[in-house]
């Protein structure tokens, strides 16, 4: 969209104050002469019941511009838009107006002035002067051809070509064709501007309802209202004489109709530049004759610059490229209007465009102003699909308004009837129609007609000579002398070889005739296979038409010209063409549905009697029951003014006809905004409009995804839900358009947001289709849930036709599973996991889930999607480059840049700060740390928890700050006092000394003793008599070693959770291979000449360390666990993969250096020895601790074994072996084992899912232990006797 005016020689730039600069650079404002009317005159024009017609204003003498001042044809002005992008459409309005021609524009203006929220839906685009086609190439791109092509010898053949939103629409019918305009302003953009009131004889015909035919003058005040808004003027006498007018005047004398010849009023701005009555700046006409193809000089008084501009200023919201298909009743109030949105190249999905319709809710009224053909088609489809009961007469009684077209070729005098962009100022072409022979005073109304001169449009000029000379049926003048015939031949040659604008050529001597008369009103519009089928009868075949053609022949022959009937008539099976189709939803002559479609106010009858729908109102040409024998738009406008006024009274709406607009500035908000009682999206709307105003570069495309979504509150898994939905035929699909108005924000803002607009449809949802307005699309956002993962996110609230709101959240995942995997990359970018939920209730963060499933992009839809991509070359290349970089990063994941740890460690979260920290001395004198956290619950549990981390880690694995709730917080909230020991092989300075996990047993014994000491002192409150231990990995191995060796007393231990391993370590596959032949660790120790292996590394490390970092890119891992983290690579090398990446969020993964330290080769060799032996060993590997005698030391201690089923360090079977051993040797009821689905090793305690899936298992085991302690009486339980209540 454009937001500024360009400077033109004939169209000065509009500055920010809304004024045009004078020649000397000063700014001034010119009011139109009408603004000087007296208050009484204005009162009559706007609202008076008996106003008089005012004479046309006196115009100043025509000032001819110099030839060199004329603008170049390719210099086009740019205007701001009064329409809004569909992305800011609201779900409901008081009033919806369909179409923006004369009737629709009247309804929009008046309802907005009645302070109703108004939405205008227009099929065509918004164009301002400077944007209309001028060449045949430009015009060809703006032609939409549809209908049935017929010949004499063959039946009709359906044809459809061109963009439905194109400016020109040629409808091929049976008997007559129709030419209409699409665009904001409708037919007013392309008509010949003739403002001609219908004669009273025609209005008194029996076809009209009694309210009109019995009072033909009832339209007077409405004509005057139209006259005030449209400001018709007669071509001034002070302007240059027009040849075509003089020719028609001479022909009127030939026909004996001199008294019926006159210049006709038309809506062309002949005055000096200034404001029209609606506050819009108008430019003086350059008399180009281009009115019927779109005039670019700013002088055409189309509805765009009056009624529609007025509607905009009073708060109406206007949307273009919206093709209304049908309407139906809303369940509660008003009507639903279903439309196909042609924006974002959605028509590339040809089938979906009309299947997946968008909708809008009109709470009170719908005004039909889509033209005779458009409105009738909508009503016919509404009867079938609404269904809305209507009269059987819908589509009947249509007329071409008696339109006839013909030419007087190669006359004996100049006509100057070829439109041109830059006519010579002394010899202009003039308006398309300037004068008329008005023969409507015939005794019978049906015999009346008008003859008007016309202009051949510039795009057609190059072809006209061929058509006029080669078409059969031409009638040449009789009795010409040889010299006269020679002159004719020379004139023809001048046009052919000297150009069609040759002033002495045959084309410049050609008069264009336009006739409006009365036809038989027998045309019919029906729907055939869902497509409109137009059939005219009685045009081009009647005696009346032959009589009119004879008059034209006579007038032509009098000037020695060749009479040529409509070339299109002769070329297309003798079919006429009309630019004024009327009828189809015509007024009933008696107010009953048996004789018409609407009542006298345009309200649609229900199909029986006089009952009608008060909120369904027709206001366009389809309302007219008979041919008018005159240009119809003045009457259409008057009838619309009448209908809107009368319907407004029924609803108690007071229309403000009197308040005048000041000069309109379309770059600012309207002067009279409407305060609506509907959902506001003002912030998002302002961001869109701001980007448009600032002319930001953006991109847009449309997308269809389809699949299955299972509607169930119990839906948890995407794949399972998809499977169930497939079996139950719960198909789902969305048709969304993505629009980023600012490419800079899309690519570089952290949220990477664009807007989503469209529909979602599901067979399981009765309220489908759901409308999506203002949804969020996020392009390659970092997935905080998983490392090295980016998502394409679709997130929006959507509204069903009954008003129900459902939240849609979907995401495509692009991660390292796509590495060197074409199929994986395809799946990543075309698979969307979908969650549907109700809106959250008050106090809730998320609503209740109501459905899950998966949607896919089909290959053929992807091809169509690529065709919809639209962007400037610059922004398009930036987008494609960004998309390709992200895709390549995933595809070539092992080769991408390594991610190094942050040099300066971040400040640890205050929420994890320990209540107390204790120094503990083991019996061998080694000092370690133990932290304590007080309970957070007032209901304190009488049990202490001691957490023992594994090798190279510390308390942080239980106090992860990067997840919402961590393990320590979980148990503190449960009322437990928590301790955590950082032993000598953990993430501690002692770890570099060379201790083993067997040595760490002494630290655990000292920690248990310290807790016992605290229990005795009561310094920190009342403690229980026993401690429950949660030990992980090497910490669990050290615990089992101490228990089996007797170095850890069992009397103070209430129970144990052994995480991943206990007394029978068994390596997983890769670690087993490494342990069998420990070449890698031996080589590392040999090459680096150090016993210490650090899991962290920096870019400044030695070449050996950096080389190792590069080699570790290719450490064998599953695709889903590939990443670029140096810490992750190095820890996997020494320990095995420590986590399932899907369970670590991105922030945790980015800060692994905070969690992982290092290990000595001595400790590593000890771990390898135990793994190879599959049992815990002494410090030097010679002492076997797993014996029957040692098992007795474990008797009476309940143990919960936990293993992740994806553990890549220790085979999950290792805990099963320990579990089976103890059950066989001791009381089987003391032991329980859980296999944790989708968990690896460390992620058991570091994942978002830990508090949901792991902690509850430990908590339940704790509760069983407490129950057992209470049942056995604490003192007795301390001696190791009794039976456990739990079962294995």
Automatic annotation (TrEMBL):
An example Gene Ontology biological process: cholesterol metabolic process
Glucose-methanol-choline oxidoreductase C-terminal domain mapped to chain residues: 577-640
Cofactor requirement: FAD
Biased amino acid composition, Pro residues: 54-63
Classification via Pfam families: GMC_oxred_C (PF05199), GMC_oxred_N (PF00732)
Keyword Metal-binding attributed: no
Known pathway: Steroid metabolism; cholesterol degradation
Domain Glucose-methanol-choline oxidoreductase N-terminal, first and last residues per copy: 97-398
Top-rank taxon, per record: Eukaryota
Keyword Glycoprotein (UniProt): no
Region (Disordered): 1-79
The entry's keywords: Cholesterol metabolism, FAD, Flavoprotein, Isomerase, Lipid metabolism, Oxidoreductase, Steroid metabolism, Sterol metabolism
E.C. designation(s): 1.1.3.6, 5.3.3.1
InterPro entries: AB_hydrolase_fold, Cholesterol_Oxidase, FAD/NAD-bd_sf, GMC_OxRdtase_N, GMC_OxRtase_C
GO molecular function: cholesterol oxidase activity; flavin adenine dinucleotide binding; steroid Delta-isomerase activity
Membership in a protein family: Belongs to the GMC oxidoreductase family.
Designated name of the protein: Cholesterol oxidase
Species this protein is from: Gomphillus americanus
């Amino acid at each position: 969209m454009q937001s500024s005016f360009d400077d033109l020689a004939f169209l000065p730039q509009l500055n920010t104050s809304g004024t045009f600069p004078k020649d000397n650079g000063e700014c001034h404002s010119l009011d139109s002469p009408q603004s000087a009317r007296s208050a009484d005159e204005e009162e009559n024009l706007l609202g008076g019941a008996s106003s008089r017609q005012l004479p046309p204003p006196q115009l100043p003498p025509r000032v001819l511009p110099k030839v060199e001042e004329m603008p170049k044809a390719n210099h086009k002005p740019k205007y701001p838009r009064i329409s809004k992008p569909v992305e800011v459409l609201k779900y409901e309005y008081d009033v919806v107006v369909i179409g923006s021609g004369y009737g629709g524009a009247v309804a929009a203006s008046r309802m907005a002035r009645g302070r109703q929220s108004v939405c205008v839906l227009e099929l065509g685009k918004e164009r301002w002067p400077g944007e209309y086609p001028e060449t045949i190439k430009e015009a060809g791109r703006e032609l939409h051809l549809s209908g049935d092509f017929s010949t004499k010898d063959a039946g009709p053949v359906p044809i459809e070509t061109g963009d439905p939103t194109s400016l020109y629409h040629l409808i091929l019918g049976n008997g007559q064709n129709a030419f209409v305009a699409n665009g904001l302003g409708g037919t007013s953009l392309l008509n010949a501007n003739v403002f001609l009131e219908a004669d009273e004889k025609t209005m008194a015909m029996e076809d009209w309802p009694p309210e009109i035919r019995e009072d033909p003058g009832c339209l007077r005040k409405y004509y005057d209202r139209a006259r005030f808004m449209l400001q018709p003027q007669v071509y001034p006498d002070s302007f240059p004489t027009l040849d075509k007018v003089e020719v028609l005047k001479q022909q009127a004398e030939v026909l004996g109709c001199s008294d019926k010849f006159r210049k006709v009023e038309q809506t062309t701005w002949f005055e000096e530049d200034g404001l029209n009555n609606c506050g819009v700046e108008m430019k003086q006409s350059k008399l180009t004759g281009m009115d019927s193809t779109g005039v670019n000089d700013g002088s055409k008084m189309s509805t765009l610059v009056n009624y529609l501009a007025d509607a905009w200023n009073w708060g109406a919201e206007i949307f273009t490229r919206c093709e209304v298909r049908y309407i139906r009743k809303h369940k509660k109030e008003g009507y639903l209007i279903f439309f196909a949105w042609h924006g974002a190249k959605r028509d590339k999905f040809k089938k979906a465009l009309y299947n997946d319709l968008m909708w809008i809710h009109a709470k009170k009224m719908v005004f039909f102003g889509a033209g005779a053909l458009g409105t009738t088609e909508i009503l016919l489809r509404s009867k079938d699909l609404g269904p809305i009961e209507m009269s059987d007469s819908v589509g009947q009684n249509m007329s071409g308004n008696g339109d006839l077209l013909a030419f007087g070729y190669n006359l004996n005098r100049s006509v100057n009837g070829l439109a041109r962009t830059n006519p010579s100022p002394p010899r202009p072409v003039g308006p398309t129609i300037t004068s008329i022979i008005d023969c409507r005073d015939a005794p019978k109304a049906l015999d009346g007609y008008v003859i008007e001169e016309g202009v051949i449009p510039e795009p057609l000029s190059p072809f006209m000579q061929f058509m006029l000379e080669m078409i059969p049926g031409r009638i040449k003048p009789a009795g010409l002398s040889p010299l006269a015939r020679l002159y004719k031949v020379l004139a023809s040659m001048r046009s052919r070889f000297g150009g069609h604008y040759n002033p002495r050529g045959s084309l410049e001597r050609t008069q264009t005739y336009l006739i409006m008369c009365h036809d038989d009103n027998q045309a019919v519009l029906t729907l055939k296979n869902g497509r409109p089928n137009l059939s005219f009868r009685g045009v081009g075949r009647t005696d009346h038409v032959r009589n009119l053609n004879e008059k034209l022949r006579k007038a032509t022959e009098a000037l020695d010209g060749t009479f040529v009937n409509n070339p299109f008539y002769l070329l297309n099976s003798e079919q006429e063409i009309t630019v004024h189709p009327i009828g189809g939803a015509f007024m009933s002559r008696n107010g009953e549905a048996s004789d018409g479609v609407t009542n006298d106010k345009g309200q649609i009858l229900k199909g029986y009697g006089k009952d009608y729908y008060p909120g369904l109102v027709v206001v366009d040409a389809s309302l007219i029951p008979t041919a008018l024998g005159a240009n119809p738009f003045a009457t259409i406008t008057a009838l619309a003014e009448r209908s809107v006024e009368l319907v407004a009274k029924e609803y108690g709406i007071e229309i403000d006809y009197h308040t005048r607009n000041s000069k309109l500035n379309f770059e600012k908000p309207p002067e009279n905004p409407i305060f609506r009682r509907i959902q506001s999206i003002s912030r998002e709307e302002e961001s869109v409009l701001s980007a448009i105003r600032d002319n930001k570069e953006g991109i847009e495309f449309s997308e269809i995804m389809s699949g299955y979504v299972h509607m169930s509150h119990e839906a948890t898994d995407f794949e399972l839900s998809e499977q169930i939905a497939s079996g139950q035929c719960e198909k789902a699909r969305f048709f969304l358009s993505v629009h980023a108005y600012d490419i800079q924000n899309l690519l570089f803002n952290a949220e990477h947001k664009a807007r989503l607009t469209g529909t979602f449809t599901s067979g399981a949802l009765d309220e489908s289709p759901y409308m999506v307005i203002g949804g969020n699309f996020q392009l390659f956002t970092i997935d905080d849930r998983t490392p090295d993962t980016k998502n394409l996110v679709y997130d929006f609230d959507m509204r069903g036709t009954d008003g129900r709101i459902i939240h849609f959240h979907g995401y495509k995942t692009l991660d390292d599973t796509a590495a060197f995997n074409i199929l994986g990359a395809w799946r990543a970018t075309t698979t969307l996991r979908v969650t549907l939920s109700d809106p959250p209730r008050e106090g809730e963060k998320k609503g209740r889930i109501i459905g899950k499933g998966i949607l896919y992009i089909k290959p053929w839809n992807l091809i169509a999607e690529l065709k919809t991509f639209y962007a400037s070359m610059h922004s398009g290349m930036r987008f494609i480059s960004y998309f390709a970089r992200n895709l390549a990063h995933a595809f070539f994941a092992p080769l991408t840049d390594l991610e190094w740890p942050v040099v300066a460690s971040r400040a640890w979260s205050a929420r994890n700060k320990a209540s107390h920290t204790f120094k503990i001395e083991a019996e061998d004198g080694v000092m370690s740390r133990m932290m304590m956290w007080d309970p957070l619950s007032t209901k304190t549990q009488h049990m202490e928890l001691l957490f023992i981390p594994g090798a190279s880690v510390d308390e942080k694995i239980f106090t992860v700050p990067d997840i919402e709730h961590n393990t320590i917080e979980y148990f503190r909230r449960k009322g437990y006092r928590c301790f955590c020991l950082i032993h000598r092989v953990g993430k501690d300075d002692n770890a570099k000394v060379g201790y083993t996990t067997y040595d760490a047993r002494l630290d655990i014994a000292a920690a248990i003793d310290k807790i016992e000491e605290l229990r005795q002192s009561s310094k920190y409150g009342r403690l229980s008599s026993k401690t429950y231990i949660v030990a992980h990995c090497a910490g669990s191995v050290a615990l089992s070693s101490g228990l089996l060796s007797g170095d850890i007393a069992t009397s103070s231990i209430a129970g144990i959770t052994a995480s991943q391993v206990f007394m029978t370590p068994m390596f997983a596959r890769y670690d087993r291979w490494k342990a069998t032949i420990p070449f890698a660790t031996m080589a590392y120790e040999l090459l680096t000449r150090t016993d210490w292996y650090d899991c962290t590394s920096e870019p400044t490390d030695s070449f050996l360390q950096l080389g190792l970092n590069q080699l570790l890119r290719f450490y064998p891992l599953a695709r889903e666990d590939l990443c670029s983290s140096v810490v992750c690579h190095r820890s996997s090398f020494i320990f095995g993969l420590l986590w399932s990446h899907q369970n670590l969020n991105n922030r945790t993964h980015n800060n692994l250096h905070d969690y992982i330290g290092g290990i000595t080769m001595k400790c590593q060799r000890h771990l390898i020895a135990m793994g190879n032996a599959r049992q815990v060993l002494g410090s030097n590997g010679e002492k076997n601790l797993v014996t029957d005698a040692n098992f007795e030391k474990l008797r009476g201690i309940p143990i919960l074994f936990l293993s992740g089923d994806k553990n890549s360090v220790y085979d999950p079977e290792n805990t099963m072996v320990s579990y089976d051993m103890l059950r066989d040797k001791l009381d089987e009821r003391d032991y329980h084992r859980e296999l944790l689905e989708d968990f690896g090793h460390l992620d058991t305690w570091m994942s978002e899912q830990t508090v949901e899936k792991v902690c509850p298992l430990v908590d339940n085991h704790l509760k069983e232990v407490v129950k057992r302690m209470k049942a056995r009486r604490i003192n007795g339980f301390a001696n190791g006797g009794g039976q456990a209540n739990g079962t294995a």
